[in-house]
Structure prediction request, 115 residues.
Amino acid sequence: MVKGWSYAQIFERVSYADVREMHSWCQDKSEQEFVDVLLGELTLRSQPTALRRARVAAGLTQTSLAARAGLSMRTIQQYEERKKDINKAAVGNVRKLALILGCRMEDLLEPVVAC
Prediction:
């Protein structure tokens, strides 16, 4: 357990592969520094994504945003659930989403937690 988080709660939000990748970035850090990075990621993933916040603020459903952007509703869901990394999305898709939502492309990207 990490400061009140059970392994089940951790792996609901962060995949084992993501934890391994974070650990590889933090190999030169202490165990406590790695735990702090993991806690930061867990906290981040407990919050709605920037895409979801922008979509809700614009008064759009996932279905309507997907239709207007020419993307599948499942893609929008996956971005909002962080099952797909919007930071790795095609620039053209992020641009379309930003134009529809009336924001900058950077506003839709997720912060990157690093050691």
